[in-house]
Write a structure and sequence with these properties.
- The complex is a heterodimer of chains A (about 400) and B (about 375).
- Chain A is an alpha+beta fold and about 400 residues long.
- In chain A, about 45% of the residues lie in helices and about 15% in strands.
- In chain A, the strands form 2 sheets. Chain A has a 4-stranded mixed β-sheet.
- In chain A, α7 packs antiparallel against α8.
- Chain A is globular, with a radius of gyration of 21 Å.
- The two termini of chain A are about 40 Å apart.
- Chain B has about 375 residues and is α+β, with helices and mostly antiparallel strands.
- In chain B, about 50% of the residues lie in helices and about 15% in strands.
- In chain B, the strands form 3 sheets. In chain B, strands 1-4-5-8 form a 4-stranded mixed β-sheet.
- In chain B, a hairpin with a 2-residue loop joins β2 and β3.
- The longest helix of chain B has about 35 residues.
- The relative contact order of chain B is 0.10.
- The chains are: A alpha+beta (about 400), B alpha+beta (about 375).
């Protein structure tokens, strides 16, 4: 047993902090980067710098433009990303986080050669979105109906996808479509496809969220021709590929979330000291409770990384960590906004009004987490997975 | 490098402890010991001596096995899982550890081998305020000639009837700051003026009121330095607290497991109740909390084992243990339904211990205060890096 990082990780942390000092303003807050052109462009400029450092795809093999760094270094990087709010680290999430790793696992050689370097370079051609959910296939995503009909030299794609984060920024779409509508089970007959967002017949329509931000979209596919070589993995075996990709998605986010929550906690303690609220026993107790859950979340995410590095097959662990994180976000954003008091009603879009506190950090999380909780499966979906695989109970849904 | 694994030796200890407990202490024994006068099984206690359990972390030169703190953590986790009633925690965690750390050579030579060979000890610290605030330790130790006279009452002292010896925290000097002027005395249970009275706790887990009426103690029986007893209490609040947390973690794991099994086996509406999302999601939450508790305890324990104890981690582990153990029991019983309310089901045995555990070595409120004190004293990282 050991709870200390090695020299390499400690050095990497220092280098990242140096980078942060040089490239980000002191009050950097986690962006809603897809919403705002200026923020998006700044994020992409950072992405390029991260790529130059080798950090953007730190754990990818050197041959694919990464550093071949062990999992622990990737973990340190993601944690620091969260703490310092480093924008651009995921370039709209999909590419860096699961498209690349999934392609390495089950993509063709041509796909690996073509797409992976684009992602690793930090250029805008490496920006991806992901098309999973549909109007009638949300949590029950195996019910998806978008049809990819196999023709002689292409799939003919028709259908509609929703909740597509960064759909308006992406060059490529990583998506799931039904290739065999006659399959006996709905989980069979699904395939993973890569769609060029510049293809004829692709329409992106913004969805504005409840606090006025444009983060995600609807995408309509109307007779879109997708070359056959854009099939990823085995035809009709998409469900299994997707479950793997979702594990990457849940796993990666947890470390960023830890860093971000830790930053908010540090900010809240600092704020309470400055304001004098730290003397209130109620606030002291509440903040201490947050500290407990934060540390708990940290050890859980670390344990998952440790399992990964030891070749343990990861099944329910990312679900455990994700549900845990949702509960932590709820807790810390409630206490945070309560500490800030009436000022927490200021629109988090504005970080620097004279009424803004902590540059809107607490209320940003407060409004955001409930929405982000649905990404990669709602909190209750995670509980289903934990029930089925962690607790070995019969499938409940 | 961060590593959550146990060594082969530690895993072997876990296995042998688990086998021992399963064999020596099935739940009918736990139930039977409730009405036993001493509350533990002396035959099993002897066998534990034979296996080297009491001396597990006592150095070789004192007849111990010379093991590490982490081995005690493994042991307590298994005890918590099994619920074995015994004076192990009182003897080893509350007394042997501080004696090893603070005792004089003579004290260590006299006491540690005795403990390794089965002598029972306990700690008397809590008073009427029922907390660990040093300001509330009022029991007087009055200097008289070469020795002291103890007068006062201690509460919730575990296994006081079975114990041959006590460590007693008393005030040798008053008027100064609360942490100063406390001393820890070694007192023979058979001494004149010592009276024990069992408190009828819900679990009948052997908690006593111990009254000291003009008990004479020679100065040589002070553990550590006179007036510096709070150092010892602080140490106990660190090393023993995490062992208590390990015990609670083991208990919470056991409650989750037996509730899971019940939910899987109990059929209603033609299917296992564990298939109903209302039940499964509650179990999933308990699973998340128990996993968190388990690993948080390991983290706090590892730092102690490495000689780098972290006060905030110790207190976090205790707050988490207090919350999770209780929640697991309440959910456990309510998921069982009416049968969970009966004597036959094991879940209630755990639930009966929740309150004792919660206040042993500090309530959640007490530990939250310690946590926030650690953080408010630190300069935040974001300020340091941009400084």
């Amino acid at each position: 047993m050991d709870f200390q990082f090695g020299e390499r990780e400690i050095r990497l942390r220092e280098e990242i902090r140096q980078f942060v000092r040089e490239n980000l303003p002191q009050g950097q807050v986690p962006y809603f980067e897809e919403h705002d052109d200026e923020e998006w462009d700044f994020g992409m400029s950072i992405a390029k710098k991260l790529a130059d450092k080798g950090w953007l795809t730190i754990s990818w093999p050197k041959a694919y433009g990464g550093m071949g760094a062990p999992e622990w270094e990737r973990a340190v990087f993601l944690e620091e990303v969260g703490y310092w709010g480093i924008p651009g680290y995921s370039m709209g999430v999909s590419g860096v986080t699961w498209v690349g790793p999934s392609l390495m696992l089950f993509g063709s050689e041509e796909q690996k050669k073509k797409y992976i370097p684009m992602i690793a370079s930090g250029e805008s051609d490496g920006v991806w979105c992901t098309g999973y959910s549909e109007p009638d296939a949300g949590s029950d995503f195996a019910s998806l109906q978008t049809r990819a009909e196999k023709k002689k030299d292409h799939y003919l794609l028709n259908g509609q996808k929703v909740w597509i984060s960064a759909g308006h920024r992406a060059r490529w779409c990583w998506m799931a479509a039904r290739t065999d509508p006659g399959a006996a089970r709905k989980h069979d007959g699904i395939s993973v496809l890569i769609v060029d967002m510049k293809s004829k017949g692709v329409t992106v329509r913004p969805i504005v969220n409840f606090y006025g931000f444009h983060l995600f979209n609807e995408i309509f596919f109307s007779d879109v021709e997708v070359p056959l070589e854009n099939l990823v993995g085995i035809e009709n075996n998409g469900w299994r590929h997707l479950m793997q990709a979702l594990t990457f998605e849940r796993g990666n986010k947890a470390l960023v979330d830890y860093g971000e929550s830790k930053r908010l906690f540090d900010e809240l303690v600092h704020f309470a000291k400055e304001s004098g609220d730290i003397r209130r026993p109620y606030i002291r107790q509440k903040l201490a409770d947050v500290a407990v859950e934060l540390e708990t979340f940290k050890v859980l995410t670390y344990e998952t990384v440790w399992k990964l590095t030891n070749g343990v097959r990861i099944i329910w662990e990312p679900s455990r960590d994700k549900a845990s994180k949702d509960m932590l976000s709820d807790q810390i954003s409630r206490i945070g906004t309560e500490l800030i008091g009436a000022y927490s009603q200021v629109d988090p879009l504005y970080t620097d009004t004279k009424w803004s506190r902590l540059r809107g950090r607490a209320e940003r999380l407060y409004y955001r987490w409930t929405g982000y909780a649905s990404a990669a499966g709602t909190t209750d979906n995670q509980r289903n997975i934990i029930g089925q695989f962690g607790l070995q109970l019969p499938k409940a849904y | 490098m961060v590593d959550f694994g146990f060594t082969k030796d530690q895993e072997m200890i876990r296995k042998s402890v688990r086998q021992f407990l399963d064999k020596e202490c099935p739940k009918d024994v736990v139930r039977a010991l409730k009405t036993d006068k001493l509350g533990y099984d002396p035959k099993a206690w002897k066998k534990m001596v034979g296996l080297g359990f009491q001396g597990m972390a006592i150095p070789d030169q004192y007849d111990g096995m010379g093991g590490e703190y982490l081995e005690l953590v493994v042991f307590m986790e298994e005890v918590g899982r099994n619920l074995m009633p015994s004076p192990f925690f009182a003897t080893v965690a509350l007394c042997a550890l501080p004696i090893e750390r603070f005792g004089s050579d003579a004290q260590r030579q006299a006491i540690l081998p005795a403990i390794a060979n089965g002598q029972i000890w306990t700690l008397a610290v809590m008073e009427a305020s029922a907390d660990y605030d040093p300001a509330n330790i009022e029991m007087a130790a009055t200097k008289e000639g070469e020795g002291y006279r103890l007068n006062g009452t201690k509460l919730f002292v575990p296994f006081a009837k079975a114990a041959e010896k006590f460590l007693v925290v008393a005030r040798t000097k008053s008027g100064g700051p609360a942490q100063e002027g406390l001393s820890v005395f070694i007192v023979d249970a058979a001494q004149k003026g010592v009276a024990v009275e069992m408190i009828p706790t819900a679990a009948r887990d052997q908690r006593y009121e111990v009254r000291f009426d003009n008990v004479e103690v020679p100065a040589a029986n002070i553990l550590g330095q006179v007036d510096r007893g709070y150092d010892i209490v602080s140490y106990i609040l660190q090393d023993a607290t995490v062992l208590k947390c390990a015990e609670m973690s083991g208990g919470a794991q056991a409650v989750l497991e037996l509730t899971r099994r019940y939910a899987r086996d109990r059929i209603q509406f033609g299917k296992p109740i564990g298939q109903l999302q209302a039940i499964q999601h509650r179990l999933a939450n308990t699973f998340i909390w128990v996993e968190g508790l388990k690993n948080l305890v390991y983290e706090a324990a590892w730092h102690i084992n490495a000689g780098d104890p972290r006060a905030e981690l110790v207190s976090m582990a205790k707050v988490k243990a207090n919350t999770v153990y209780q929640q697991a029991c309440i959910d456990g019983i309510t998921i069982h339904g009416a049968i969970g309310f009966t004597e036959e089901m094991d879940v209630g045995l755990y639930h009966l211990r929740t309150k004792a555990h919660e206040f042993d070595l500090g309530s959640s409120e007490f530990h939250r205060e310690r946590i926030i004190r650690e953080f408010e004293e630190q300069e935040p990282l974001f300020a340091k890096v941009y400084a």
